[in-house]
Design goal:
- The structure is a single chain.
- With 307 residues, this protein is α+β, with helices and mostly antiparallel strands.
- It folds into two domains: 2-140 and 289-304, ATPase, nucleotide binding domain (Nucleotidyltransferase, domain 5, 2-Layer Sandwich), CATH 3.30.420; 149-189 and 223-276, Nucleotidyltransferase, domain 5.
- Helix content is 35%, strand content 30%.
- The protein is built from eight helices and 16 strands.
- The strands form three sheets. The protein has an eight-stranded mixed sheet with strand order 1-2-9-11-10-7-8-6.
- The two termini are 19 Å apart.
């Protein structure tokens, strides 16, 4: 969270797997109920309905404003950030992002979606909040995660943001983003998970819970049968090979360019691909994009106000 005059800037990274703010991360799942559910530790109450945050899995949708889920998940993220500052009421500017090549076409609609109510009252984790939403600023994913140190980048750099739903690639030359060389593809880590489930059922006749598969992708191993682990690792290696094949198709050359890997999928590159030492750098902070959105919004607002 950043402060500007009497308002606060809150960055929200609307992932398909997780929602990230500058200080928090939680599953992007949400389940709505007409009556108060049995378990209420992560319950949002809004508009007369009850919502359990983090329940279920958010399906991939090309337009995040197509349903109410991301609006409600945004309220939960804002509440978490406000609570950390001891606030229950605030004037809020939302800083968010969209996949690189979708930003121009969708940012006005997404901003309108996030600001559709100028004032919002809701309850989260049994604490009442009242916020006034002053506006929303939308920035490109991937770039936001490295925006603060982009000016120091020399030569040809490639940013690859591997999320749960999409893979975003951006070329930056001597600190300048190349608008004509940015790409968004539906090749996020969820595609890897689906391929693993299919391979396990086809070759081993078993189903393994997503949480165990996630553990292998994040850590490289898990306490499961060796043959199951071997198969999961093999599919993960193929998926990561696909990432680098796509990068090369876009013009990436690992001998002459520096690759910056951001997003939750960075752990797969670490665990299942041999990178060239010194030519691949990892942005390990999973909340880097949310922090980048706040950074970019603060710069933009100060410039507009002549600060």
């Amino acid at each position: 969270m950043k402060r500007i005059n009497d308002a606060v800037i809150i960055g929200v990274d609307h992932g398909y797997g997780n929602i990230k703010t500058a200080n928090h991360i939680f599953k992007a799942g949400i389940a709505g109920y007409d009556h108060e559910p049995l378990f209420t530790s992560d319950m949002l109450v809004y508009g007369g309905r009850y919502y359990v945050i983090g329940e279920g899995h958010k399906e991939f949708v090309p337009q995040k404003q197509s349903d109410e889920d991301y609006y409600l998940l945004t309220l939960a993220g804002i509440a978490m950030e406000l609570k950390a500052e001891g606030l229950t009421e605030a004037d809020v500017i939302i800083a968010a992002g969209l996949p690189l090549t979708w930003t121009t076409g969708q940012k006005a609609e997404f901003a309108a979606y996030l600001t559709r109510n100028a004032e919002v009252s809701f309850t989260f984790r049994k604490v009442d909040y009242h916020i006034r939403i002053l506006g929303a600023r939308i920035y490109p994913q991937g770039y936001a995660a490295v925006a603060e140190f982009t000016p120091s980048m020399k030569g040809v750099n490639v940013i690859v943001d591997i999320g749960n739903g999409t893979m975003n690639t951006l070329f930056i030359i001597d600190g300048k983003p190349q608008v004509g060389r940015m790409f968004t593809e539906k090749f996020g880590t969820h595609q890897c998970t689906l391929a693993i489930h299919e391979a396990l059922m086809r070759e081993r006749g078993v189903e393994i819970d997503d949480s165990i598969i996630d553990g292998v992708l994040i850590n490289g191993t898990a306490d499961i049968l060796k043959d199951d682990l071997k198969l999961i690792r093999s599919v993960a290696e193929q998926y990561v090979g696909g990432i680098f094949r796509r990068l090369r198709e876009h013009g990436y050359d690992e001998q002459t360019m520096t690759l910056y890997v951001t997003g939750g999928g960075g752990c797969l590159v670490k665990n299942f691909y041999r990178t060239k030492p010194g030519r691949v750098r990892f942005v390990d902070d999973i909340r880097a994009a949310a922090k980048g959105y706040e950074y970019l919004a603060e710069l933009q607002l100060k410039a507009e106000r002549g600060v």
